[in-house]
Design brief:
There is one protein chain. The chain has 187 residues and is mostly helical. Strands 1-2 form a two-stranded antiparallel ribbon. Helix 2 runs antiparallel to helix 3 and helix 2 packs across helix 5. The radius of gyration is 24 Å and the shape is globular. The termini are far apart.
């Protein structure tokens, strides 16, 4: 019943007075969480901003990895907390470790693959940290460790294929050209 009279809660934010229901909910919103203190909203904010950089400073593939990170986190919330979201203040160092374990065991992924998801999770979380929406860093005690991988040598065909590849930006073309130049000059 909009417009009906309700008694306002007692406390420092309210004087003991009658409010209309509409005004009561307006005041109640003032003390609720900021939208970006809810993790999926923060992910959406980060990913919208990151998408604007596709083709300029980053690739669509990297952007798609942030989307995949958000999906893995949503799956983790659903399996561990029976929810699709979490409040940022509830993210702890244990939460971060549990997420790493979840990604590692869910699909039998390697350490490096799982670490990259935790790294992207930290990048998203740092948006909230840098904006003052949270005050603690649950990643401070998490140890990032990547396993060394053996990379094979490029063949002449690989280098020629790289030269023929059309890059999405001039910056990536310059990076490719410098790389190919270094390949020709190392022997």
């Amino acid at each position: 019943m909009l417009g009906s009279r309700v008694r306002a809660p007692e406390g420092p934010l309210y004087k003991a007075a009658s409010f209309t229901t509409c005004r009561f909910f307006y005041h109640l919103q003032a003390i609720t969480l900021c939208d970006y203190q809810i993790f999926h909203k923060l992910c959406d904010l980060h990913n919208e901003d990151y998408k604007k950089l596709v083709g300029k400073e980053t690739t669509y593939k990297t952007y798609s990895r942030y989307i995949l990170t958000r999906n893995h986190l949503a799956d983790f919330f659903a399996s561990k907390y029976k929810s699709r979201d979490i409040i940022l203040a509830d993210i702890s160092p244990k939460f971060v470790s549990d997420f790493y374990t979840f990604v590692r065991n869910n699909g039998d992924h390697s350490n490096n693959y799982s670490m990259k998801f935790v790294q992207r999770f930290r990048t998203i979380y740092n948006v909230a940290l840098n904006n003052g929406w949270v005050s603690t860093d649950p990643f401070a005690t998490f140890k990032f460790h990547f396993d060394k991988t053996e990379r094979g040598c490029l063949t002449l065909e690989d280098v020629k294929m790289m030269l023929g590849k059309k890059m999405p930006s001039e910056r990536l073309e310059a990076v490719r050209d410098v790389f190919v130049f270094s390949c020709w000059n190392t022997y």
